[in-house]
Structures are given as C-alpha cells and as structure tokens.
UniProtKB/TrEMBL annotation:
Gene source species: Polysphondylium violaceum
Lineage: Eukaryota, Amoebozoa, Evosea, Eumycetozoa, Dictyostelia
Annotated keywords: GTP-binding, Lipoprotein, Membrane, Nucleotide-binding, Prenylation
Protein name: Rab GTPase
Keyword GTP-binding: yes
Location of the protein in the cell: Cell membrane
C-alpha cells in the first residue's frame, strides 16, 4: 500500500476576507453570502491527487478566526504546519495592509522556509476592487511568497491555490 502523505495547511487573514468561504468552496463546492465569523478555529480534511505523481495527498485544513480576540489561538496552530494561506479582500485595503503583519507573525512562529501564499479574494467584485492585482503581486514579491487572486463566490482560482501550495511543499 502507498504511504499516505498528509499536509497541514492553515488559513489566516483579517475577519471577513473570505477564509471560510474559500475552504467551503474547496471542500464542498458551495458558497453562502451569509457571514458567520469563525470562532477559534475550524477543521476540515480534503484528499486530492497530485496530477504529476498520481500520489494521493491528504490536506488537513485549519480555518482560523480573523477577529483580534482569537489571535493567540491562531499562533499556536502554526506549529507543525506545512503551508499557510494569507488572505485579504481585494475591496478592503486595510485587510491587504495587514498581510505583511500576518507574514511576519508566521515567520516569527515557524521554522525558516515555510510555504506561504498570498491570496486576494473576492475578485468577482470588480467595480469595488481597491487593491489592484499589481499591488498584490508587488507585495508578494517583496515578501518572497507566491500570489493568486480568487473568488470563493464564483469558484475562481480556489483549487489553484491548493495545487500551488502542494506543488511548493513537495518542491522543498
Ligand atoms: P472570519 O471567520 O471572521 O475570520 O472571516 P472569514 O475570513 O472566514 O470570512 P467568510 O468566509 O466568513 O466571508 C465573509 C463574507 O464575505 C461572507 O459574507 C461571504 O459570503 C463573503 N465572501 C467570501 N468570499 C467571497 C467572494 O469571493 N466574493 C464575494 N462577493 N463575497 C465573498
Ligand atoms: Mg471564517
């Protein structure tokens, strides 16, 4: 029998940027416009197949709460993780500005070489977009991490985030 590969992935970012929505889109292929803030941390599992190797990879997905009062809980979840997804909302510059703090926080609480992806979510809201794709890319370049835009609502870019993450984890 094949050895099972398991990667621990964490989603962080400000409250309301769409972390839970990205995960629900990825695991259940559904979306709800109703906002129910995550309390503490939620957990989910999804098995995917690596297209190149054919290997089955189990993803242990930790969905953290963006609200400030849960921040110390979030920090304890970095330990033992293989990859972190830092999410902002493209209509909310404040959530974008906070991303460098999230990445600093990750780097301070994990070993060197943690795989981090910056994700600009809600790309469907084109007329309300305030953080340009170029700004997202530029920040990711500065922080030396990868970057993608997504829409959990329209199922744009979501599987790519996890594919890219797994690719990068396996390349290290
Ligand atoms: P916390 O759990 O508090 O940290 O928030 P969160 O980052 O998990 O945000 P959540 O996924 O709960 O989404 C917040 C709100 O944004 C909800 O009302 C979602 O329906 C909405 N939302 C999430 N993703 C998208 C998207 O891609 N497009 C649009 N238009 N709305 C979205
Ligand atoms: Mg949430």
């Amino acid at each position: 029998m094949e050895e099972e590969i398991l990667y621990k992935i964490i989603l962080v970012g400000e409250s309301g940027v769409g972390k839970s929505s990205i995960l629900v889109r990825f695991t259940d292929n559904t979306f709800t416009p109703h906002f129910a803030p995550t309390l503490g941390v939620d957990f989910n599992v999804k098995t995917i197949r690596n297209k190149e190797t054919g290997q089955t990879v189990k993803l242990q997905l930790w969905d953290t709460a963006g609200q400030e009062r849960f921040k110390s809980i979030t920090q304890t979840f970095y330990r033992g993780s293989h990859g972190v997804i830092v999410v902002y909302d493209v209509t909310d510059p404040k959530s974008f500005d906070r991303c460098k703090n999230w990445v600093e926080d990750i780097n301070q609480n994990t070993q060197d070489g943690m795989i981090i992806i910056l994700v600009g979510n809600k790309s469907d809201l084109t007329s309300q977009k305030k953080v340009s794709t170029e700004q997202g890319k530029a920040l990711a370049d500065t922080l030396n991490i990868k970057f993608l835009e997504t829409s959990a609502k329209e199922n744009f870019g979501v599987t790519q985030v996890f594919d890219l993450l797994v690719q990068d984890i396996e390349a290290t």
